[in-house]
Each structure stands twice: as structure tokens, then as C-alpha cells.
Amino acid sequence: MTVPLLKIGVVLSTMAMITNWMSQTLPSLVGLNTTKLTAAQGGYPDRSTGVLPANPEESWQVYSSAQDSEGRCVCTVVAPQQSMCSRDARTKQLRQLLEKVQNMTQSIQVLDQRTQRDLQYVEKMEVQLRGLETKFKEVEENHKQNIAKQYKAIKAKMEALRPLIPVLEEYKADAKLVLQFKEEVRNLTSVLSELQEEMGAYDYEELHNRVSNLEERLRACMQKLACGKLTGISDPITIKTSGSRFGSWMTDPLAPEGDTRVWYMDGYHNNRFVREYKSMHDFMTSDNFTSHRLPHPWSGTGQVVYNGSIYFNKFQSHVIIKFDFRTSSISKSRQLDYAGFNNAYHYAWGGHSDIDLMVDEGGLWAVYATNQNAGNIVISKLNPSTLQIIKSWTTNHPKRSAGESFMICGTLYVTNGYSGGTKVYYAYSTNSSTYEYIDIPLQNKYSHISMLDYNPHDRALYAWNNGHQVLYNVTLFHVIRSEELWIFLWSTGEGRRSGGVLEQRLLATNCRILTLPKILRITVE
């Protein structure tokens, strides 16, 4: 910026010098060096001065010379009479002077053009400098925004850890219970040791009952501790492609050892035939099945087989029916009070899915909606024998906005849709009567899920996906605390093909609570 400004100063100084030279030299060149000043009235000089020739008729008359606003020389000249000889020497001098003035004018114009160009360069540099200043400000603001984003991300991670606090609190009581068991086992071990030394000191049946009672309590404790929070869902395993777009299929989580029957129900209404396949192998490789005719058609796809009976919602009603496969008869039926039915509060995909029955580690559940709860989901724990409601929980999640739902360890998990990209995004815990929003991806391989239920025995999700029978393995997070250490376990149900048979098994560490030396060893696996 310094060089162009110096150029401008040089130009202005040059123009001022030229103007001063012309004002002094021009009169002498034209013979006007004999001058006098005329006084204005009152003896004071006039504000405009004139240069008067000795003989006005024979010479040029220059009245004034000055600079205009742009620094150019301005002269007022009166030419002599036309009778003057054109070859006068002063006329030649004047012409020469005029030529010089023209040359100087051209030089000034060239200099002016250069000056304008430099001025434009200066203005362009000024714009660039302002742009750089703006960019520096933007960089500074972006830096502040990045710091704010990082802070929000850290805060979000901290919020994600908060749900673990109630889980840890819940297991404090379990840790105390385990300590009590340890103490009782120590006492029992001492008694058994003495009994080994002195036969007959205690009644054998009483001792056996105490051992059996303790073992049952240990198993119940371990079953409770085995429950966990859903943290992941595997990719789908396609078992079979059959049936219509809607339906349900399942196995009995309370089936005795060796009973691997598969139950199959095609459609969501106006059907009452249930297929029974002898094994998973038969279901996968053949169409050999036994057909059971229900006394009433079912509604929706929320049926469940539990302990040898099928529980279903009677079509166009809020009646729940328990049908015993062993006797081929209805063993119990009951109305689910205030529950919406006949497509009043269905899942997002429709299909008369107003009432959804499901099971988990805790037993039998019903998921539905009522007018009293403004169409939001209601969770009810049912007595499997009488179908009476043991306890109900009201949630704030609209039933019609849910794609599907399932229960794991007393927590209802809800998907955000049934087609396209799907995920589990809402969880309501009946243990703490609280809810949270989560983000667990669920691969919707065939783009339309009309049934999704959890099997606590297999630790797997059974799904009907657009005419495909599909399995998902789940991963659960467990926390077990004792006075000595913390144990964190992730257990997952894994599907495995062996000789064409899909075997479902629970992959979990064998959990040996404690050991009674010499006489009795209690192991929960």
C-alpha cells in the first residue's frame, strides 16, 4: 500500500510544479513581463488579479491562471487582433509553448492512467485484506464451536452412563443375599462334616430338605442375576421361507428337555389352524406337520405357546383364550378390560395387532392400549393359569407409533417401525417403572416385520419378515457384585447349524457360586 500512495503524491507534486511554472513563464514568453496590478475601489486590491500588457492591441492578454479541483492548469487568455502578423516571433513561441503544453498534458494523462491503475490495485488489496480478516474471524468462531461440540459429546456420553446407576443399585440387595447364602452353606457344610463323623446326629430327611431348599433359592437367585439389559441384536438367520406376508411362529420356552416342536400360524385373522412340526429340523426341511383346529379364529400375530398351551386373542374381541394342546380344549378365557381391539390400537403395520401376548424370564405378559391411557401402551403381567392381571404399567408411548415390541427380563423394548431401516429405540422397565430412549439397530432383511417375540430359553428373537421365518440372537449385559469384586458379563444366544439342524443354545460362562468341600457341591450352570 505504501508504493501506490507515494506515486499519487509524486503526481500531485508534479502537477503543482507545472502549474506554478506556467503561471510564471507564460507571460514572459508572450511578452507580458511588463505588468501592473490594478487596485479595486477603496484602494484595496481586487480578489481577481489580471496581467495587463503594455499594448493590449498588439499582444496576448493573460488575465489569470489557476488550478482546478483535479490539479490541472487553467489559464484565461485573450488573443490579439486579427491584423497582427501571424509570423510574429512571439506567436511562434506561443505555438511552441502550446505544443509543449500538449505534450505535458499527454504525459499527465498517461501518469493519471497509471495512478488509476495503482489505485485499483490498492482497492483490490484492501478487499483481500478484509476477506482475510473475515476468514480469521470465522476460524476463531469455528474453533469455539468445535470446543462446544466436544463438550456436548462428552456430556452425552456421561448421560449414556447414567442408566447404569439404577442397575448397580438393584444388585446391592442381591449381593447381600449371596453373602447370606454363603453363610448358610458354611453352616450346612459344618453340619454335614459333623454328620460324617457322627452318623445319626441329625435327621437325614430334614438335612436333605434344607439342602434342596437352599439349592432352589440359589437357582432362583441365579435366574434373577442372569437377566440383563439388551445391548445388541445379531444379523438375521433365515430359517424358512413360507406362508403369506403376515404370520407368527414360535417354540415353547418351558418345553421339557428334548421337546423341540415348532408352532406355525399363517395370517393375522379369520384363521384357526395351528401347524405343529415335530422338530426344528422338520420345520426347516419338510412340510410334515400336524394341524390343530382352534375353537375360535385368532386376531393379529401376538400369539404365544407357553408350557404346553397356546394363548391368543379371539378375533374381533378383547378376550384372551388359553388353549391346551394336550387336551385340545379351552382351559381358560378372560376379557382384558378396557383393551382396544378390532384395529382400534394396532401396531404401525395394522393387521388387528391390538393385543400382543409375550413371555420372558418372568412369565406371561400382555401389551395393548386403552382409551383411558390415550392410546398409549399398557403393559400387564398375567397369571398363566387364571389369566388374571397381576399388575399393570402405563407408558407414554403411542401404540400406533410402534412397529413391534418384545419383553426381556421385565423390560418392554419397542421398535421405531416395521419396514425399511428399523431399530429398537424405546425401553420401559417394569422393575423401576421408568423409560429411556436407546439406539439398537435391527436389520430388517425382508422389509416388513409383522411379528417379533423373545424366547427366554433360546435367548433369541423370533420374527416373521414378509413371508420369511427369521431368528435374531441377542446380547445382554449383566452386573453381579459381591464384597470382593465386580463381575460384568455379556451373554448372547447363538444359532448353530449341526447336520442341517438349527440348535439354539445359550453361550454363557458356567456360574459356580460356591463349593461345599468333601460332601456336597452346588453348581448352577
TrEMBL record:
CC annotations in GO: extracellular space; synapse
Main location: secreted
Subcellular location: Secreted; Synapse
Alphabetized SMART domains for the sequence: OLF (SM00284)
Intrachain S-S bonds: 227-409
Coiled-coil stretches noted in the UniProt entry, renumbered to this chain: 94-142, 178-224
The keyword Coiled coil is annotated on this UniProt entry: yes
Domain Olfactomedin-like: 226-478
Signal peptide: 1-16
The entry's keywords: Coiled coil, Disulfide bond, Glycoprotein, Secreted, Signal, Synapse
SUPFAM superfamilies the record matches: YVTN repeat-like/Quinoprotein amine dehydrogenase
One family name in Pfam for this protein: Noelin-1
One Gene Ontology term from the biological process aspect of the record: signal transduction
Protein name, as recorded: Olfactomedin-like domain-containing protein
Lineage: Eukaryota, Metazoa, Chordata, Craniata, Vertebrata
